[in-house]
């Protein structure tokens, strides 16, 4: 099985980009170890703090953020970082040309129940002259990502990565600490009979989404003429990983549960990197109004509606939104 660095070199990635990805993965290996230790390392449970988004931070959220932040800033490969757990961006090496946005530990409500969590990251390029302390350097559309990926801390630790030449899946060999290529060029089937949505929000969805899900649930005798299965992991990394492996539709749609927060998932470090991985594997990622990768961001912690996965099924869902 092939190791990650030569695969990236073969894809034409610069030496600097390969080093940056390896730096991110060095932090992820440590997070993987801590997550694996669970209660033994005393890192379960919450802190007394909230992040800028008003969510209570888990101890592992804080630890994972610190690990990524320290190792990235120390490496010299990044001009700045943006993180779900940081109020604003943090400046790095003024001479570097890459910036990284990340969700250090996605799905953190799963931490204390020993269920799936992961790290999501998005790498973009900026002008060498740009100011590392200027947060607006992060306001680039997802199409400009030079690489995107996630590391899933499950029964095995897996990396899904795209540098714009397909999406590949690697598995961490914990005896040697190498990510080995275990699934070249993931290909999401265009059709599916599996979907993922937090159905407890049903009464808060928009009319088109209510109708779409109602038709899926109607099964064989309904307008779709086939039975559908439902799954919900409550960690976007876990749900997207399943979609990459066997297809499906994943959505966190607009809702009116909290009028100040119509969308849940964050554009820069959740929706955009996942959209790149999904598109590069032949799927589609949309908000219902536009392709996620075409959105021009206006804020670092901006949220969006997400409908992604098997192409024909996402298109079927979009048909209800027109
Ligand atoms: O990061 C936000 C997130 O935890 C995603 O990973 C996940 O898909 C979603 O929120 C879970 O939402 P809910 O708590 O509504 O199930
Ligand atoms: Mn998250």
From TrEMBL:
SUPFAM superfamilies: Carbohydrate phosphatase (SSF56655). It comes from Pseudoalteromonas xiamenensis. Binds 2 magnesium ions per subunit. It is an enzyme of class 3 (hydrolase). Pathway: Carbohydrate biosynthesis. This is Fructose-1,6-bisphosphatase class 1. Signal peptide: none annotated. The lineage of its organism: Bacteria, Pseudomonadati, Pseudomonadota, Gammaproteobacteria, Alteromonadales. Keywords: Carbohydrate metabolism, Cytoplasm, Hydrolase, Magnesium, Metal-binding.
